[in-house]
Amino acid sequence: MRRCRFSVARTALAFVAAALLESSTGALLAREPNASDLIDQMIRRPGDYDQLCAELGPLSAKVDLPLYRMIVFRDVKLSAANLQTLRDHRAEVVPALVQRLTTLDFLRPVPPPRDVKFRKPKPGEEGDIPEGDAIEDSGLSPRALSGVLYQMIVGLDTVEALPQLLRLEEQLRSLIAAADADRKAPLPYATPDGALNIKTKLSKRDQSLVAARVTQRELLSVMMQLLRRQQFGPLLTSSYEQAYAKALKERASEEDLRDIKTPADAKAKGEEWLTFDPIYKVPVGYFHEDPTFPFSREIREEMRGLVQQFIDTVPRAQWKVTNDAP
Prior knowledge:
Layout: E1 2-7, H1 10-30, H2 35-44, E2 47-55, E3 65-66, E4 76-78, H3 80-88, H4 90-102, E5 117-119, E6 134-137, H5 147-155, H6 162-181, H7 204-229, H8 233-236, H9 239-252, H10 263-268, E7 275-277, E8 282-284, E9 292-293, H11 297-313
Helix pairs in contact: 1-2, 1-3, 2-4, 6-7, 7-11
């Protein structure tokens, strides 16, 4: 699998994000904050767009786990400015996010994503916003799982959502198992947004099940991302984490990253995709191929057990929910 990725007009997107904060978001927050409205607004106009060109190997019925990332490539993303606005109102937004998750049901149809709509620059904006850079409507349903919603959950360190994420993942697993066992069983409505390439030789039913497996694996990854941001000890000794550590260190030893020794070094490069891992103290660049981990019943049970252990043993006072969480 090979992916080439380039960002579209970063300075223009920053300008768009600022405009959103001043107009749409600012108007919402000028009155008593309505967190649900704010979430809807951010999903409709997340503020960032990365055009992707990709050669993706088609997925078969066997879907591996992503290591602290997503499987699907998504070109619509939450901008840093909009994420910061959500963080500034975390106390109101997180309960609304959790409530939204409680309403999700994989037996209930959801509208498929529509095409992204872009707005034309207003007079005077032409130099800052080239046509095609400002998202008018992401096409995403605010009432469905999406990459933007996952970004909100992880970016806000929404460990409060872990019980609902466990519920959704278990419902999806059981529906997939039932559909595997009985061709007449209902299929879950669980096709992810974004670019997904599934082998066409599979039947339409089996393609739907592959898409559902992708969503299930991404739900598990979101939970692991939340635990890693908490630097949860039992996770950091898991086989899942050790596989990521190996991939991370191997990538950090390559020529383009090996001279980066500190977070300041990484920041000085001025590349948005370049970060610094706080656990192993190495730079985190793009991977030539996103690292994965074999999926099995055993690893799924281990991951769910780690989540439940966190819920049961880590008190709220010890949660890491600051803006500089790793």
